[in-house]
Specification:
Layout (H helix, E strand, L loop, with lengths): L8 H16 L3 E2 L5 E3 H8 L9 E4 L3 E5 L4 H10 L5 E10 L11 E10 L4 H16 L5 E6 H9 L5 H9 L4 H11 L7 H8 L3 H5 L8 H15 L6 H12 L1 E3 H11 L7 H17 L7 E3 L13 E6 L10 E5 L1 H7 L7 E6 L1 H6 L5
Parallel strand pairs: 1-5
Antiparallel strand pairs: 2-4, 3-4, 5-6, 6-12, 7-10, 8-9, 10-11, 11-12
């Protein structure tokens, strides 16, 4: 059974102190309801989000969700305004199902800092990471960094069909499904007999038997047509599979990772602009006082988080307590502001800290 948040005055006190620290640096305080409309998150991330959130039904308001984090309602709030540059801080309870980690808390405090509208993304990334690094420095946590933007650029630049690129893009944040798709597109996994029979049938809907579920016959027919079109395409080349594997396998210090990725870019030039942004961020971090020479970078890092991150991502971990989730996480989510701003986007990056985990680790001085 997953744990609920204990009544821990130290954790609540830490939360207020952290929020006050961000506010003293000029961040506006943000508050939102604990019970939020589920429609927005379901629309953004699909039905999969139900597996990690608590959803209920209200007779008047429809499906509602216990707040899984503050970022989506904050972006909605900011984009309803003029979208001018601003920073925010918040603290409060969030709720996450822990089916894969029943020993972890399903209700806990979260403190956040979010920055909107910076004109120099690399500098803002460095500043946000630096703020979290400075706060957490007394605990000696292990930092982790990555860049979802490089993976997005990788998929965009692949030599394959547009439909296959779109399918891979949808599953960047689901590593197992992404790998399964790559293998399928490369012809490395056999077509299940039932699917092969369905695609070969003259009348596949009749061959499939009784229609059940929520999809209409028209939707099922469209899906079958798409599968047939994909089956008629040539397999993805072994070179493409190797390039994907090479990018995802990069795990080094930032300078060495950048060097490896530039070598890969010789055959995958579509990632070059993303690598230029990575390099600019490293330079900005150095100016900010971050030890970039020893800062870890993993190309696959951040892929199992909620799917709004589309650029720089980071986290901080207690190596002496591998049983604990990350003490802090964050990243860039420019595309989310465009989605919730009805096409009017703005640069955005931020992160959250778990004060309950800080308390578990002895707190901050």
């Amino acid at each position: 059974m997953s744990q609920t948040m204990p009544d821990t005055p130290p954790a609540r006190g830490l939360a207020q102190r952290l929020c006050n620290r961000f506010a003293s640096d000029g961040a506006a305080r943000f508050e939102t309801n604990i019970l939020l409309p589920a429609e927005v998150l379901l629309d953004l991330y699909g039905e999969d989000v139900r597996a990690r959130t608590y959803v209920t039904s209200d007779p008047d308001r429809g499906e509602m969700m216990l707040r899984p984090d503050f970022t989506v309602p904050l972006v909605q709030y900011h984009m309803r305004g003029a979208g001018a540059p601003a920073s925010y801080t918040y603290c409060g309870e969030v709720f996450r199902k822990q089916e894969d980690h029943p020993d972890r808390r399903s209700e806990y405090m979260q403190v956040g800092y979010e920055d909107f509208g910076g004109s120099d993304p690399a500098q803002v990334d460095a500043d946000v990471f630096g703020r979290f690094s400075d706060i957490l420095a007394p605990l000696g946590l292990r930092p982790a960094t990555g860049d979802i933007g490089i993976l997005i650029a990788m998929v965009t630049g692949l030599d394959t069909t547009e439909d296959r690129r779109a399918a891979l893009m949808r599953h960047i944040w689901r590593p197992a499904r992404f790998t399964a798709l790559v293998k399928r597109f490369a012809g490395l996994t056999p077509v299940p007999p039932a699917r092969a029979a369905l695609l070969a049938a003259d009348n596949p809907l009749q061959a499939a038997g009784t229609t059940i579920g929520l999809r209409s016959k028209g939707e099922i027919a469209s899906r079958i047509d798409a599968l047939r079109a994909d089956a008629a395409c040539a397999p993805v080349s072994g070179e493409v599979v190797e390039l994907i594997s090479a990018v995802l396998a990069v795990s080094e210090t930032c300078p060495n990772a950048l060097e490896q990725l530039r070598d890969i870019a010789v055959d995958l030039p579509g990632i070059l602009p993303a690598l230029d942004r990575f390099e600019a961020r490293c330079e900005a971090m150095t100016r900010r006082g971050v030890d970039v020479e020893s800062l870890p970078f993993e190309a696959s890092y951040g892929r199992t988080s909620m799917e709004y991150y589309d650029g720089f991502v980071f986290g901080f971990y207690a190596e002496a307590r591998p049983d604990l989730p990350p003490v802090a996480t964050g990243g860039r989510y420019d595309a989310l502001t465009e989605r919730l701003g009805q096409g009017r986007g703005i640069p955005a990056v931020g992160g959250v800290i778990r004060p309950d985990l800080l308390s578990d680790l002895g707190g901050l001085a």
